[in-house]
Amino acid sequence: MSNTLGSEQWHERAKKLIPGGVSSPVRAFTSVGGTPRYYVRGEGSKIWDIDGNEYVDLVNSWGPMILGHAHPQVVSKVSQAVENSFSFGAPGPGEVLLAEEISLRVPACERVRFVSSGTEAVMTAVRLARAATHRNLIVKFAGCYHGHSDALLVQAGSGIATLGLPNSPGVTAGQAQDTVVLEYNNALQLEELFTERGEQIAAVITEPTPANMGVVPPEQGFNKLIADTAHKYGALMILDEVMTGFRVSKGGWWGKFAATEDWTPDIFTFGKVIGGGMPLAALGGSAKIMELLAPTGSVYQAGTLSGNPVATAAGLATLELCDESLYDTLDLRARQVGEGISDALTRAGVGHSYQTGGNLFSFFFTPNRVRNFSEAQLQNTEVFAKFFHSLLDQGVSVPPSAYEAWFVSGAITDLDVERIIEAAAIAAKVAAS
Ligand SMILES: *Cc1c(COP(=O)(O)O)cnc(C)c1O
């Protein structure tokens, strides 16, 4: 067992002032028990906690650290930006360059607006969809997470799933009424809803491959069905690529998989990778819809720190290094790590379902394949907790929840892969016991 006294002391101190000691719920280790590690440094594929323990990182800040930690080229660009001031609250070249980069990678984004978090991007997308269609209803899928704005905090994934909350108190009945929740991968439910209420629906929002209830890939044609059904009834499709955008390919999920399937969402949301670890997110879409935003249109949206020069510098420097060869590396590392761990679990006789969505992956501790949130909830989270703690004690940091995706970075080495798989062999035996 590693020494974690420093983390324990800081966490006790944190809990006196910060609810649960954390700034975001999943970090508190509620579902796995134990004390969260207080990380103080990262370099490449590794991070170190305040007690000096070293970990190979398979969380990578839930995606943004796609190049690994403190990449020298990113650090240098961000340092340059910082020297010129942190913020002006005025337009700057950084946001223009980043908008151009996004539009180049995802041509369906004819216009881009920057915000500071994925939550904000999705909240704005929903407002925009309602304004564009003059309708109120939003359709989402159970287990998908789209940030914590009221309209979307109904049967959500991520922390809400980890804590087993159906909905959050504080969301009004009116808000909940305007959100219809369907089962993921259920074409029949989608078609029935549109037959009954199609004319009231402003938008369907979805993750292109849900990864906030663990990774649950869409069945063949499901995204296209969403797009086609919505469009047939004059509703919009919001594709929430906050997690997948520029992580699973140069053009995100849509850029990789939709080109051959022939579907296009009306509004995209991005976050995580586009800020390279700084608070930055965006929404994009057709000029016709996006120009409804103020000041060209009347849909209000704003932000003191939106398009911040330091954040856009981090995002740009990160995306500059996200080329085809990086995505090949990520795919390879994800396969090596994911399959290696799955083999270790199989050898130890731990029933599980290893699921992938591009280079995102996760393990459900249930023998059957998971296609939706109710099936995800059949898993044994106690087995996960044992597996998690054994990995952590051996210096492998993975998400502290059975309902989250795992993230590789381009900095992972062959040696790291070996170390992860060796740790997994031991952790799998612990999980089996
Ligand atoms: C992380 C995430 C969000 C929320 O982004 P924040 O920056 O945490 O507000 C929204 N949608 C998806 C798909 C996400 O993965």
From TrEMBL:
Gene3D superfamilies with a match to the protein in the record: Aspartate Aminotransferase, domain 1, Type I PLP-dependent aspartate aminotransferase-like (Major domain)
UniProt keyword Chaperone, yes or no: no
GO cellular component labels: cytoplasm
TM ranges: none
An example Gene Ontology molecular-function term: pyridoxal phosphate binding
Compartments in which it is found: Cytoplasm
Family to which the UniProt record says this protein belongs: Belongs to the class-III pyridoxal-phosphate-dependent aminotransferase family. HemL subfamily.
HAMAP family in UniProt: HemL_aminotrans_3
The protein, known as: Glutamate-1-semialdehyde 2,1-aminomutase
Gene that this sequence comes from: hemL
